[in-house]
Amino acid sequence: MATVRRGAQAPARWQLVACGLALFASCLLAASAGAFVSTLPPLFSAALTLDPAARLPAPTRYSYRGIHTTVMPGIEEPLRTRLEARVPAALGDVLAFYRTELRKLGWQERQDNATVTADRARLAFVSPIGPATLELDRNGGSTAVHLVQKNSDVATRANVLPEPGQAKLVFSNIGENEAVLAIRERTIPRPAGANAVALDLVPGKYPYALSVPGRPATTNVLTVTAGHTWELTVGRDGAAWPPLQLY
Q: How high is the mean pLDDT of the chain?
């Protein structure tokens, strides 16, 4: 009796029998698997549901979610609100969710600034209270969400709204000693407790140094784009805080 080994070729009659048995077995397996899959409910529905409790639109399904607001002294409404979340869903499903829900809120998507690929999406909007952006990034089996909404009226009242096509930098010193900011070939001193000062900047990269007596200078590079406002602050203990995007 001939034996069929891996890599060996069986006689013709045995090939027919072997193929027939293999085909019969595969048909049984396919039928069994098909019957099993058809009765098994999906682990997750592809549809994402809006969470009515979220300050900015977000689905009820998430593995992480955080909300961050920037508030100016004396003004109750946030200047800038940022949502960060991780949603266990495909990027395309999350993108469809946000386009639908933001449209319901009157957000108008700026088609000229949209970038969508299989791994990332970058969208710009005009919301009822100001400009907004949505960034999505595929992260394994999840999608990272970064949604920002700015309030133009609050920015105007707080004097931090950039001029068209420009960026703005606010320098604050709440420490007990004079602080000096060196940026763009300028040296800007601010006495202790003095009001903040604002600078208009052309979009670009700006090396800067913050100096306080008795401390080594803090140096860094600030990258600004049109329509954004950043703040550099010296804290009460004289330490320079990391750059903060206000608007």
A: 84
Query: For residue 25, with 0-12 CB atoms within 10 Å meaning exposed, 13-18 middle and 19 or more buried, which class applies?
Result: exposed
**How many CA atoms does the CB half-sphere of 87 hold within 13 Å?**
32
Nearest alpha-carbon partner for 120 in 137, 97, 133, 99: 137
CATH annotation of 159-245: 2.60.40
Are the CB atoms for 126 and 107 separated by under 8 Å? yes
User: In this predicted structure, what is the pLDDT of residue 116?
Assistant: 96
- Overall size of the chain counted in residues: 247
Q: Is pTM beyond 0.70 here? A: yes
- Residues of the chain within CATH 3.30.160 domain(s) are 64-154
Is CATH 3.30.160 correct for 64-154?
Answer: yes
167-173 and 229-234 as β-strands: parallel, antiparallel, unpaired?
parallel
- Portions of the chain given CATH number 2.60.40: 159-245
pLDDT in tens, 163-177: 999 999 999 999 999
**Nearest CA-CA partner of 19 in 33, 32, 9:** 9
Query: What's the DSSP call for residue 42?
Result: P
Confidence at 45, pLDDT banded by 50, 70, 90: low
Q: Which residue has the tokens 């070729």?
A: 9
